[in-house]
Amino acid sequence: MNDLGSAFEAAIGLVSGADPALLGIVLLSLQVSLSALAVAALVGLPLGALLAVARFPGRAAVIVALNALMGLPPVLCGLLIYLLLSRAGPLGPLGLLFTPTAMVIAQAVLIAPIVAALARQVLEGMWEEYGEQLRSFRVSAIRAVPTLLWDGRFALLTVLLAGFGRAAAEVGAVMIVGGNIEGYTRVMTTAIALETSKGDLPLALALGMVLMAIVAVVNALAQGLRDVAGRWAG
């Protein structure tokens, strides 16, 4: 018990003292997760909007596949990205394996289906509500996409926050493609796993505290945006 208390005390000291190693890991984690979120948003939001307004053969199958990909196991995603980026893979010559870029790709692949599927649900409801009115102004479904994205911006921000939370908590895929290299590809989740296995509880606990704080802030922002969206709609 004394050892555990000492570990917590040391962890608090690392956080309050802005330990350089701790800060480096946290900043890299935020950089990778935010970059992955940007890529996933560029792919997922237009795809979700297209599925919300368009009607085409095979649409139901695409939606089912997208919903299934929301549950893609991270280690499987990491393995697939690893095979693509390895020397024998089609993208091997780019030399991206065991780099932050590879970690961004893995996280983006994981969260893009989440962003697209949730965005479709949000925008489909808006299209059902406003579609007839937009069509009366001779606005086609495709041309209505920017309008829906703008009107649904608060709800879509909560979608993006959900994607960021998923990315920030990822460990399996980024460890496979990033290699958990100290000072280069070590992020919060992989560092927590490593430091715990090494018995370095203070650093693991400090990173856990920061990660929980980030998750709490993300959830608070999401709730705040929901309230804003509700007042805006009202």
UniProtKB/TrEMBL annotation:
Protein name: ABC transporter permease
Organism per entry: Neoroseomonas eburnea
Listed InterPro entries: ABC_perm_TupB-like, MetI-like, MetI-like_sf
Transmembrane segments: 20-53, 60-85, 97-119, 154-181, 201-222
UniProtKB keywords: Membrane, Transmembrane, Transmembrane helix
GO cellular component: plasma membrane
Keyword 4Fe-4S tagged: no
Domain of life: Bacteria
Protein location: Cell membrane
Domain ABC transmembrane type-1: 26-222
GO biological process: transmembrane transport
Gene3D superfamilies: MetI-like (1.10.3720.10)
Membrane topology: Multi-pass membrane protein
